[in-house]
Amino acid sequence: MREEIIVSGRMNHLIDPYLQIWHWPIPFYLFVGGLAAGILFFAALMTIRGKEEQYTAATRYAPFIVPFLLVLGLGALFIDLNHKPYFWRLYTTLRLESPMSWGAWTLMVVTPLSIIWCAINIRYIFPKWQWPYEWLKNLDAFFVKHKMTIAWVMIISSTILGIYTGILFSAFNARPLWNTSILGPLFLASGLSAGAAVIAFMGKTHLEKTTFAKIDLLIIGIELFLIIHLFMGFLASSQVQIEAASLFLGGEYTAPFWIFVVFLGMVVPAILDFLELRGYPIPTVLPMILVLFGSITFRFIIAFAGQASRYLY
Predict the structure, then answer these.
(1) What is the pLDDT of residues 179-205, one digit of tens each?
(2) Range of the structural domain that residue 42 is part of
(3) What's the rounded Cα separation, in Å, for the pair 147 and 218?
(4) Which domain CATH number covers 155?
(5) Does some domain include residue 165?
(6) Is 313 domain-assigned?
(7) Full 3-state SS string of 188-233
């Protein structure tokens, strides 16, 4: 824990009730981390199911976005750190009870995995690609041979990454809004929805576009269920959690949450996905933009609203 306090420093601003928009790194990191987790999850899933040829956008093209997303996310985390030269202290120990430790080590696994995945699929992007050195060719052949093993590791690590983005908030027990186990699955579902929307947009065939539109529609339904369950749990709990829920049920975050996150970020994309599946010519870019907008807005609102909720002493 001492290492985390030394490194994170400015992370304490996360529990400042007057956090403003310029303290954007943590919500932004949670967004790109969730999106990266969603894309990697589906890439690994379709590979494990032997569907690489049917779903090329999921397994070969969309994953090329992930290393850039992770670099942006890690850059945002680095900006947020108060004692930047000591970031390596997070890797001097592994604390199973610490979300920051889990996140640091998960990123240590996911980031090189995403690069390896891109490397073994680069020939599909650039058909004439040739590795310049023999040892790189041998290394590439090794990874291709063990592609299924990499996919299994990737699906597990991406799931952990997606859940961790929510657990990072729920570990702050002093904030009633964050102090719930629902945030982990909810953030995972949000990341999977964003990943599915991006893959549907990048889909090369009608089958791939419609399959991931169906997947996104299903996950949006799960998200709505989890949100309802979240507020039901708050309203059936202690007074401070009832007050935390009231921030979204008549309080200052009511309009932003229900309009931008739920309606524009979930309900409208779900309607568009449904219409597309019914044969209407809906541009896949529309649900993708709305889902991504809802996903990032959701994380910013949860970050800000969580600081407005507090226990009274």
Answers:
(1) 888 999 999 999 999 999 999 999 989
(2) 2-308
(3) 28
(4) 1.20.1630.10
(5) yes
(6) no
(7) HHHHHHHHHHHHHHHCCCHHHHHHHHHHHHHHHHHHHHHHHHHHHH
Establish if 9 belongs to a structural domain. Answer: yes
Burial class from Cβ neighbours inside 10 Å (0-12, 13-18, 19+) for residue 285 reads exposed
The length of the chain is 313
| Euclidean distance between CA atoms 150 and 140, whole angstroms | 13
Nearest to 215 by CA among 241, 188, 235, 197: 197
- Tens of pLDDT, residue by residue over 15-24, are 343 344 447 7
The amino acid at 101: S
The amino acid at 247: L
Nearest to 59 by CA among 76, 41, 75: 41
The tokens of 87 are what? Answer: 């970031």
Strands (DSSP E) contained in the chain are none
Domain count, the chain: 1
